[in-house]
C-alpha cells in the first residue's frame, strides 16, 4: 500500500514538474503580446522588450519573470527620451499570490546593465510620471 502511495506521489510530482517546465513555452508569444498591450494601455510611454523568460523552476517554489532588451520611451514632449533601458529586468513572485490574490507579492527585483534618463521640464513635468490617470475613485 505504501509503495503505491509513493509511486503515485512521485508520478504526480514529476507531471507537475514537467507542466511547470513546458507551460511558459506554450504560451510565450501570447503572454508577450498581452503584456506589451496592457502595459502600453496603462502608461503614457511605450514599453518594449525583445524576449520574455518565465520560470517556475529557477526560483521554486516561486515564479520568476525576466524581460530582456527592455526599453521604456516617453510620449508627447518626452517622445525622444528613453526613460529606462536595461539588458534585463526580472522579478520573483509568490506563485500563490499570482493564482489566488488580487495583489501580487514581489519577493525580489533585479536589473542588469540599466541606463535611465530622468528629466524635469521648466513647467515641472517629469518624464517618469508615466502612469495614466485611473478612472476608479480612491
Describe this protein's structure.
This protein has 138 residues and is of the alpha+beta class. It is 33% helix and 32% strand. The chain is built from three helices and six strands. It has helices at 2-26, 28-42, 95-100; strands at 45-48, 51-55, 62-74, 82-94, 106-112, 115-116. Strands 1, 2, 3, 4, 5 and 6 form a six-stranded antiparallel beta sheet that branches. Strand 3 and strand 4 (82-94) form a beta hairpin. The longest helix is centred in the first third of the chain and has 25 residues, at 2-26.
Annotation keywords:
alpha+beta; 138 residues
Structural class: alpha+beta
| Overall pLDDT | 83
Low-confidence parts, pLDDT < 50 over ≥5 residues? none
The value of Rg in angstroms is: 20 Å
Strand content: 25-35%
What gap, in angstroms, lies between the N and C termini?
A: 57 Å
Cα shape: elongated
Count helical runs: 3
The number of distinct β-strands equals: 6
Order of helices and strands: HHEEEEHEE
Q: Note the main sheet.
A: 6 strands, antiparallel
Q: Kindly state the percentage of residues in helix.
A: 25-40%
Brief summary:
With 138 residues, the protein is α+β, with helices and mostly antiparallel strands.
Amino acid at each position: 500500500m505504501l509503495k503505491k502511495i509513493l509511486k503515485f506521489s512521485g508520478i504526480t510530482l514529476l507531471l507537475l514538474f514537467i507542466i511547470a517546465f513546458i507551460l511558459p513555452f506554450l504560451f510565450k508569444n501570447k503572454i508577450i503580446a498581452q503584456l506589451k498591450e496592457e502595459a502600453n494601455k496603462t502608461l503614457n510611454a511605450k514599453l518594449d522588450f525583445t524576449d520574455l523568460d518565465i520560470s517556475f523552476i529557477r526560483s521554486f517554489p516561486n515564479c520568476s519573470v525576466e524581460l530582456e532588451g527592455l526599453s521604456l520611451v516617453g510620449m508627447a514632449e518626452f517622445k525622444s527620451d528613453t526613460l529606462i533601458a536595461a539588458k534585463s529586468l526580472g522579478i520573483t513572485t509568490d506563485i500563490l499570490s499570482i493564482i489566488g490574490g488580487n495583489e501580487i507579492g514581489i519577493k525580489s527585483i533585479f536589473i542588469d546593465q540599466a541606463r535611465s534618463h530622468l528629466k524635469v521640464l521648466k513647467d515641472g513635468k517629469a518624464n517618469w510620471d508615466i502612469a495614466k490617470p485611473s478612472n476608479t475613485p480612491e
